[in-house]
Structures
1.
Amino acid sequence: MNTAHIPKIELHLHLEGAAPPAFIRGLAAEKGMDLSRIFTGDGGYAYRDFPHFLNVYEAATSVLTGPEEFARLTTAVLQESAAHGVIYTEAFLSPDFCGGGDLGAWREYLAAIREAAAQAEARDGIILRGIVTAIRHLGPDRAKPAALCAAETAGDFITGFGIAGDEMTGKLKEFTWSFDMAREAGLQITAHGGEWGGAASVWDAVKDLNVARIGHGVQAIEDPALVAHLAETGVVLECCPGSNVVLGVFPDWGSHPIEKLRAAGVKVTVSTDDPPFFHTTMTDEYDRLAETFGWDSGIFAEITKTALEAAFCDAATRETLTKKLELTP
Ligand code: HPA
Ligand code: ZN
């Protein structure tokens, strides 16, 4: 099956994490920054494990120091996504990386990202929406300005609020203030959980934050009662199997629980997370799912429908996407 041309909806993509290594290397060279430690000999990102990945991620991001650079990044990322058939994507955007939590600076970064997204939409038809994201290992106090940035810019483009970073640091409950602020501003909620912290961490996201979606969530498979709960309540999992396999959450594609979760009635979707870090694209994800689990065009259509329904966008955007999907044979 040629999956490159299947229209795709991606719900879990870290904007900085989608930066091509050559893009980051080029900017570092322009600024005279020595980032050679974060690259492999053949030009990819070099990291040992998840904590080191987060460290390399932040080092790579440190070269992106202004709105113009985020605009260039947005253009590059959306062009690549569109080439893989992505018609709609939601990107995690972090005020911590875009002005350090200062609202005025955040507005400038956001304006630049939006402008680049509007141009990409006009050129390639791809639609972008943003999920403002707190970084868990920076702690609850740093999440508060991020939540304020999210609340102040909530609207047709910033449609969600979430949390990423080191899931083994702190408890989600400590971030309630920020999630409440985001929710009160009308934002929809997702949280990374169940990538590293087991089923307990998925329960925390469900019970403590009442999330609509969970980033990863795949370790829910350890707890049959949780799998049943997710299936019953319709909480959507933003699964990123290639990311999980490369980071060693599961030893290989055959061991990844996405198919078991789907078969149990859990709403699963497919995304790339940080594609160049994990040597993946949406086409690669689809190809591996077809190879490993025999997913066919019917199952991919079902996944797309789930993602469309779970997208944090307004009704008009969902209608546009529905029409685009209907037009595709
Ligand atoms: N997991 C958690 N936090 C992250 C990731 C990830 O894969 N990428 C960027 N921040
Ligand atoms: Zn992620």
Note: The mean pLDDT is 97.
2.
Amino acid sequence: MKPVKIGVLGLGTVGGGTVNVLRRNADEIARRAGREIQVVRAFARDLNRSRICDTTGIGLTDDPYSIVNDPEIEIVAELIGGTGIARDLVLKALDNGKHVVTANKALIALHGNEIFAKARAQGLMVAFEAAVAGGIPIIKAVREGLAGNTIEWVAGIINGTCNYILTEMWEKGRDFPDVLQEAQALGYAEADPTFDVEGIDAAHKLTILASIAFGIPLQFDKVYIEGISGITRLDVAYAQALGYRIKLLGIARRTPAGVELRVHPTLIPERRLIANVNGVMNAVLVKGDAVGPTLFYGAGADPTGSSVVADLVDVVRMLTSDPDNRVPHLAFQPGSIADIPVLPASEMQTAYYLRLSAEDKPGVLADVTRILADHRISIEAIIQKEALADESHLPVILLTHKLKEKELNEALARIEALSTINGPVKRIRVETLG
Ligand code: HSE
């Protein structure tokens, strides 16, 4: 059979990695796909830059439109990233009847509904395994491997940069800004590291996971997002003293009232496997009603080419199949996507870690616990640290039971108004993931 001709847009870490995998494993890949997969053309912004891949035999161009308009190319791999030119190129490729493979999480999270609608109308495939958790085949696992389950919740460490920073803070007692600089130098962070540390990158990935887990539309704008820039090494140390680790989690949970979609720093009991996923690694915990909890672990960034190539193989295998009988883009049949309400943050239910700075005199803690009791908030654990030599206030750390955020807000407003409490109360959500 004739080789399938591919055009690659972007020859950076993901694009270059994809070309490398295709070359290295060409025979194995052809045995699986049934045909040779040949990269015939590739777009790079700067044609003279040195590359991580061998481009021999690939027609390089600095005009990406010449690839999406090339009649010879059957599949376009969009590995540029971002939502500007990438969106335009993907839509143009679909207009021109080409299948698309992409690693672009922001593009799918923000414009996926539009892209999939166009792909369906054209009878084309858009594959995006590489958009979530890099090399971990989590899209396929949830969309196909767990297709018999009602998915109850998904919780993932889906940003390697944040996981690296939090691990360094925990293991070595380092400060946030110092580790962030190192993560950037190591190439883990996005071009704009705000996307990583403020939880936006994780929210893009969570949007996609939630959609394929629950059969809901992609709705990034409804995700509650809180990053890790406010986490101090003191919080990491106090969490450890209570038997917890702090991780940035993306959580999607089905509740009787609606779906919770949230990204935030989270205390997780250290006995959980996912609490021990360290460094730049990713992991996704999926709870299905039939299977129970399943944990998927692997590297989130560097091996993304592995996922791009898996998608290319999938697309090649399905080239001649009837479009109506392919696996639906978002796991559920398009006519069965359900508009389940997404809960606002005030209605989300979690337990909390609270850190207060309290004046060192009798009765202060009693005032705090009385207010919590007035609001029927029970305390699971409490630690009080000694004040530093020259300080009049001491840190008090409380763990609450599970409650709605709006109930906590009311109690905290009263606690923060006490003259004996210094500044705002620091709060971090707690999940047992049991
Ligand atoms: N900046 C991302 C991360 C890369 O740190 O996880 C992979 O999407």
Note: The two ends are 51 Å apart (CA to CA).
